[in-house]
Amino acid sequence: MSKKLIIITALGVALHPCSPVAARAADFRIENRVFVSSSKEPTAESTTLFYRGTVYDFLEKPAEITVFDPLENRFVLLDVDRGMKTELSTKTIDATLVRLKRLAETSKDPKVRFLYRPEFAQTIDPKTNELVFESDWMTYRVTTVAAEDAALARQYRQFCDAYANLNMFLRPGSRPPYPRLIVSDAIEKRGEIPTAILLVLKYQRGLDLRQERLRSEHRFVKRLLESDRDRIVAAGEQMASFKAVDLRQYENRQEPPAR
User: What is this structure's pTM?
Assistant: First the structure.
């Protein structure tokens, strides 16, 4: 799985079209781009498709599909180039993060404690109308639009939270998801979804205070295209045909294709 800042997703084999959750779920797409520092070229691009309660996130480079099935409490990762797949239980992911959080609570490093129990000063910028989440360690500035309904905002937030947890599980040394979860919670409570997120990371190097800027853009489209539905069908076929491997094998990019 490849690194991204914030992005959205689902599953083709287990669509559960008759379930109550699937019946209430909205179908929509989000086009995502991630930028580092002041770069005008995105470092990552993906398309996230929400379909009948399942989410499919298509990363362009490398060609990888992340499928999130909340009804089955699982992620399925598909490596398109190597014809491999691996499955991860969200319960396993959550249990691992709970253990890491308990360990972090004993840390004497204030930054570590913040990352696992973050607190932000939350305001709205009167000039830009951005939501601002300020702390000594990081600042989020978020541009939002109103969601069509509360269920859509909740559906989007559910995926974002699960995806943030997945990223931490796959990369234990990466930034914990908890600051992002606070941001997602605030956005959902406003009945909104983000269209742009700027994250400013602050850190000390010697006597200098440095900053790193990460920016993501999200274009929301209220309906799926015919080509989107074709991609979902293809993803379902790949889930059925790709070789199942464990996470260690999947993460080893040096291994030859499974076909």
Answer: 0.86
